[in-house]
Amino acid sequence: MKTDKLIALLCAAAVVFGVLAACASKHETETTQTPSTEPAGLPEGFVAQEVSECVDRSGYNMRIGAYLWYGFEGCSFTQRHIDEFYEYREPLWGYGYPDVEDMEFQIQLAYDYGLDFFAIDYYSSVTDAYNAQPADYFVAAKNSRLLDFCLIVIDADSNTTPNRGNWDVSRDKYIYYMSQDNSLKIDGRPVIVFHVPDQLITSLGGADSTRECLDDLEQKMMEKGYPGIYVLACAGPVEANQSSFSSDRCDSRTFLSKLAIYEKAGFDAFTSYNYIIFDKVNGSYESDYRTFASHFEDCWNVFSKYSSSRYAPCLLGGWDDRPRETEIAGRASYALGRTADDFRDHILNAYGWLKNNPDNALSNLGFIYAWDEIDEGGYIIPTKGEGFAMLEGLKAAADIINGECYK
């Protein structure tokens, strides 16, 4: 589908298709009201085409991915989101992700604008208490081979984090997704990301025990014919309550000690979900997007300056969690004034980091936070407030980086 045709389709669909209401945010429980509306719908006339073979990206200079939350179905927003941010952040096709066909539309949209893979938020590692539909919808989509994908395991609590007693349950679920023909791979080795490595290590009984489990996962994948796997941990130097950051002020001893523990536990490389900053004194933190993005870039430089570890840059699509400030967290941070050009330049800076740091770069991967984290303000999907600005920035960067590689 050509970009102009897609834009026309979406603009024609900008009539409110509605919202699937009542959803708990993935990070915290939100006990607030949500408007009563109809389910969301797809742009009229969209039909995904069957894709039988994976897109060959072996010659790409950079593989650009984004975290996929896909969490509106069954979710609720804070009252402040409803009062101040609801319409501005509403996707052009409406809130809510009701079926596989909607996932097919998301895949087509991402592909048309230069995205190469989704890292899908995954909550169902141990029990069925959390919904694994996003990953299942992706696998079932008839056009899924337009993109690669991996899981980012949101190991946040006992329902999502395995222990030694139920490790085999989680392991077999991971293997199912990692064995798909379009699973994200580095040198033939499927990738999996863990959101909270400390939680996983604690739950599995320490670093040595965690390594045994991750080695077990790798062995099972090798028995299926793969040369190995890449296990990534989200890690970085920025901690909560830090109002600014510079690689020159990094506590390198603490940073390297943390990486050493993760590597002892069996993690092969690192990225992050995001690098959020709060004001030590006032709590909430306001910045312009470019300054906030520069904090992310400083985090990349910490890896290349102090470590020999492999790292995939985490990029800032956006962050503005003011909807949660008064009703949940008591504080917020927000990066204002983002533009397509700023986002394009941030992606190009990540590509520059990959080229300039071949000894640290994890192949040619970069992870954008995020595709559709609407409530946290980390999204690049087209919305009623911003239109296609962020996707246009993505496409501009992808065309510069990989334009000559497109088939």
Structure description:
By secondary structure, this protein is α/β, with parallel strands linked by helices. Helices cover 36% and strands 13% of the residues. Strands 1, 2, 3, 4, 5, 6, 7, 9 and 11 form a 9-stranded mixed sheet that branches. A two-stranded parallel sheet has the order 8-10. Strand 12 (372-373) and strand 13 (378-379) form a beta hairpin. Helix 5 (167-178) packs across helix 7 (207-223).
Briefly say what this structure is.
With 407 residues, this protein is an alpha/beta fold.
Blueprint of the fold:
Elements: H1 3-12, E1 63-68, H2 79-89, H3 100-112, E2 117-122, H4 133-140, E3 148-153, H5 167-178, E4 185-186, E5 189-194, H6 197-204, H7 207-223, E6 230-234, H8 252-264, E7 269-271, E8 285-288, H9 289-306, E9 314-316, H10 325-329, E10 333-336, H11 340-356, E11 365-369, E12 372-373, E13 378-379, H12 389-402
Helix pairs in contact: 3-4, 5-7, 6-7, 9-11, 11-12
**Derived structural class:** alpha/beta
The CATH class, by name, is Alpha Beta
Mean pLDDT over the residues: 86
Please give the alpha-carbon distance between the first and last residues. Answer: 15 Å
- The gross shape turns out to be globular
Number of domains: 1
